[in-house]
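Here is one chain, start to finish.
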Amino acid sequence: MLVNEARYLSLVDNKYGLDLQVPGSAIMTSFGLDVLALWSDAIGLAVFCGAFLILGYLALFFLLVEKR
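Its structure:
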């Protein structure tokens, strides 16, 4: 989500009478985030979501069995 929000962001800071403009992609790169990895991150998130949905279903199926 950070890549999507801050990729085209430009941060402006006024220090000592100078306006410094730093692009958001440069800041994310300095933290080790890959700006171009949006789709691989989205696919990974979808895989995690699907896996946890399946695990939750299996846990409910086996742990909450109705006993008669």
